[in-house]
Amino acid sequence: MESLPQTIIHDKIYDLRGLKVMLDSDLASLYQVETRRIMEQVNRNIEKFPNDFMFQLTKDEFENLKSQNATSSWGGTRKLPHVFTEQGVYMLATVLKSKVATDVTINIMRTFTKLREFALTYKDIIIALKNLKEDLKLILNILKQLLNYFLKY
Q: Of all residues in the chain, what percent are helix, strand and coil, respectively (each to 5)?
């Protein structure tokens, strides 16, 4: 299978409960299976999916997610969707056991890694900007003092 563009995967990763997660329906689409097939395998192997690997959305979370993605087609789901963390996505590949699932999971893992790298870089930039701000405040304070000193004479 050809490598999936990271933007396709990235657009299917959401922030919920302070975690990066993917919807069961998005994973099903990427894995080229029906959502119910994923959930069948999860239910057969439920011990592999603790709450920090997979959880079901609340109605409010689902509504909020839909409103954030108004252009997406969410279909007429009867059940609240499940979401999978990075570890849950990896575990899915072990229970689905298909070439497509393996290939897609490799691409997803690479995307999660890139997101973490970006977050670390972003954090470093924020820290550097805060330090620069403090330095600029100090310089401005010194300049004001010098200006006041010279204006007195």
A: 65, 10, 25
